[in-house]
Amino acid sequence: MKTLEKILQKVIEKNPGEKEFHQAVEEVLSSLEPVIKKHPEFLEEGIIDRLVEPERQIIFRVPWVDDNGEPQLNRGFRVQFNSAIGPYKGGLRFHPSVYLGIIKFLGFEQIFKNSLTGLPIGGGKGGSDFDPKGKSNGEIMKFCQSFMTELYRHIGKDIDIPAGDIGVGSREIGYLYGQYKRIKNSFDAGVLTGKGLTYGGSFARKEATGYGLIYFVKEMLEANNQTLKNKTIVISGSGNVAIYACEKAQQYDAKVVAMSDSKGYIYDKNGIKLDTIKQIKEVERKRISEYIKYHTEAKYHECQKDIWSIKCDIALPCATQNDIDINQAQVLIKNGVIAIGEGANMPCTNEAIKFFLENNILLAPAKAANAGGVATSALEMSQDSMRICWTFEEVDNKLHEIMKSIFKAADKAAKEYGMPGNYVAGANIAGFLKVANAMRAQGIV
């Protein structure tokens, strides 16, 4: 549809050089043509024009002093993208690759992801080009305190609720919350999620994105007369998402044979020993190459991208954006892959997504499949508001039901708009409709 193409072109012209943001917008708009044909009012009332423009973009400097007494400077970001259905909600990413375009792509994705959860949360994202790797705890604490000294004025439990993302785990959330509490002189536990259990955190938050991914993939497979049992799985990444996707997949009797980090990947034909991965990554904070010291039968390879050359039934990209391009997609299909589950944000290029769908590969899109993390963050917000603490089992059961409902919503929308089995389009449409209708109800704001 020419009007949607014009909107995309305008986004590209107004946001030069932000290729990740352009890609995210293109991926969503490519699904909306049948929706616009049925509901031309979304164009007539400028809903889509407003949807692709953030409500607010905040950029600030973050000065801090390293352990040698040398002054350092980073840049901080918070993009408050859309609040039509609730306060802004989305993680903070600390990584040297972070710039405004990355944050905007993540914030845009978050709108639809949060909508799909069925919970009242809008879309936002933030972060910094600060790299926690190689920094001492003291340096990370000083950076986090400086970051929050600016960020605090833009967030609140009914305004904007950040969480963690790449480079921001429970340690960083703790430092950020401590500084917020100091400045505000108030125990507002609901202002950040991903907190420790001793000060308002939720059970199952660490596991949620990985578990949720497997719950969604399980629903998708079963809807297509398949199961996880005895399937061979390759997972990129070795952070929280990858680790707990591996854990839940193994609980369903699947065989995970490979995992990676930014330097390379390990292949264990006998199946990944998850306790070893947890020790290396969660306790020692070392490279995944350490795995072969414990399991000599495993192999380590330095090119992380080559992990997709391993023959598998299911591929779970859980590392970072654009992990699988058209070349990797072709290799995966040649080797017999039947399903892709996107655990990271936008881990497949648009070209790869199109190729998978054209070849009838089941594809669980990120904005649906990795929504378990933000869904459990919203459950953490609810617990903080009610001053209660649910058990791990209670939270996990709620998460499982949310992921089932997300799959049903994507499946239903895909069928309703003439694209059965296309869960990418289904998730885009289902997420869009809720936000678009809320925007219409609130007028031109």
Automatic annotation (TrEMBL):
Q: Which domain of life is it from?
A: Bacteria
Q: Which residues bind substrate?
A: K89, Q110, K113, G164, S377
Gene3D superfamilies the UniProt entry points to: Glutamate Dehydrogenase, chain A, domain 3, Leucine Dehydrogenase, chain A, domain 1, NAD(P)-binding Rossmann-like Domain
Point out the coiled-coil segments of this chain: none
The UniProt GO MF terms for this protein read: glutamate dehydrogenase (NADP+) activity; nucleotide binding
Q: Where is the Glutamate/phenylalanine/leucine/valine/L-tryptophan dehydrogenase C-terminal domain?
A: 202-443
Q: Where is this site: Important for catalysis?
A: D165
Q: Name one GO biological process term.
A: glutamate biosynthetic process
Q: Which UniProt keywords apply?
A: NAD, Nucleotide-binding, Oxidoreductase
Binding residues annotated for NAD(+), in chain numbering: T209, N240
What's any one GO cellular component for it? cytosol
Which residues participate directly in catalysis?
Answer: K125 (proton donor)
Tagged with keyword Phosphoprotein: no
Q: Does the keyword Oxidoreductase apply?
A: yes
According to the record's subunit comment, the protein's assembly and interactions are: Homohexamer.
User: What family is this?
Assistant: Belongs to the Glu/Leu/Phe/Val dehydrogenases family.
List the PANTHER family.
Answer: NADP-SPECIFIC GLUTAMATE DEHYDROGENASE 1-RELATED
- Full protein name: Glutamate dehydrogenase
Q: Which species?
A: Clostridium tepidiprofundi DSM 19306
Encoding gene, per UniProt annotation:
gdhA
